[in-house]
Amino acid sequence: MVAAGSHTRLLAQIALPRQAVRAGMTRSGIGALGLALDVAAVANIGSVSLFGDLRDDWKKIVAELDVSNSDVWRSFFDGVSPNWNGEAKALMERFVRHTTDKIYPMAKDIAAKMSSMMQSQRKEIFEYDVSVALLYLTSGPIFLTLMAASATPAGQFALASFTLAFIAALGNLLKQFADVIAAYESGLNGVEMAVNTMNSMVFTGGDPEKGGRDLKMYRTVTDPAQVDSGFWDPAGAK
Length: 238
What we know:
The chain contains 6 helices and 2 strands. Strands 1-2 form a two-stranded antiparallel ribbon. It is mostly helical and 238 residues long. The protein has helices at 6-13, 15-28, 32-43, 48-80, 87-148, 153-202, and strands spanning 84-85, 233-234.
């Protein structure tokens, strides 16, 4: 596990080499694109620990859903089902069997996918951060050397050639980063569709702001006076 704030320390470590890189690209006379890519590449350096924490948060949600699902199942089939009959019991059983038993696996699958995506993002961010840092740490001293020799035509040519190579390497890293983001957004789109499907089963019109679906648990179901009326019929000792 990479310590929290590692990206901040990484930025501090590449600060001096980055100055040399920027100065070298400016001296080369062809570094305008490189300077723009430099800003984008460094701005994309991210916190590995953030994605690690999010991964662990989603793993906890998976475990909590397992416990909650078990609690619902046991509450009904250990507490209600052996002791009661009637319309209310039948309604609750249908809900437990056909709704909660579908919702919990869906919610667990969503949480598990989010945890996996956070782990994947953690890995990709770590690899990107390391690649950018190595590029600057190795290129900074070379730019310093080439700038010192740039007073001659051959030295200026070497500086320009290395600037082009650096720009190409930086551009390749940014393309890889963009590909990771695109894949991540595609994964999130799939999760969003799964969430919409789950919401349609739970909320009125699939909209959480409209509240939960009406389970048709009429007031008579919770009225003690309705015991023995057909809604709640004792099946044995309570």
